[in-house]
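Exam revision sheet. Question 4 asks you to relate a sequence to its structure. Input first:
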Amino acid sequence: MVEAVRKGYWIVLDELNLAPSEVLEALNRLLDDNRELFIPETQEVVKPHPNFVLFATQNPPGLYGGRKVLSKAFRNRFLELHFDDIPENELEIILEKRCLLPKSFCQKLVMIMKDLQRHRQSTQVFAGKHGFITLRDLFRWAERHPGTYEELAQTGYMLLAERLRRTEEKALVKQVIEKYLKVTVDLEKIYDCTKQSEFQELNKLLAVDTTNHFKIVWTKSMKRLYTLVGECLKYKEPILLVGETGTGKTTVCQLYSILMKRKLHILNCHQNTETADFLGGLRPVRGTFRFCPN
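Answer key, structure tokens:
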């Protein structure tokens, strides 16, 4: 921030209403008419470069977890602009141009998204407009580049339904997808990974494993987990595995590290885990500081 103020860079403060109060307080003086940045550690006052510009973005408070309502006095320091949802016809054009999907696929995707959002708004059980699908989900769905309506349906089910925990929610997502795409989502077919060449290669590697660390029983749920993680890896998507202890979350990551011959590092997080545990930190060394990576 100090470098940007001095040299006239532009800065975007993303998700402003997630910032702690002390961060917001530090901005007050910079956003006032006198436009100054005070550095308390050095007692220095920095005047901004004429080209310095500050932007901030945020989601509406109340609709998204953790967002605070900023005070009116603080918001008055900005020129505040509000943006509505992207119109359906424009969203179809964006999907078509950005993801290179057929126009008919883009229309179906938008229709499915709107229908799922209507279900969320009109039902007490499924609270929250974006609980089923967001724009990020929509683009992720399109960027997997399905070639047929059947692939489009299967991809949508894996992305949207498989992150839900309630059986009735999964059934509703499946019903909406089948309604618009006019195909049947066959879960047995989707998760039958035994015929994949990668799966057969993995079994060969496990067969010669002398450590006997992996004694895998390929149940229906294990095949499902293996298939879902494999799809995410195929498209280089970040993965969050949620489940009780012993359900195979870590094991499936270890299996893919063996299959892809990648070194796997496991870091156990807890409530006292700090940023320095991931990134390293500064340690005093005879009056100076040295960066110590972990």
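Marking note for examiners. The beta strands are 10-13, 37-39, 44-46, 53-56, 281-285, 288-292.
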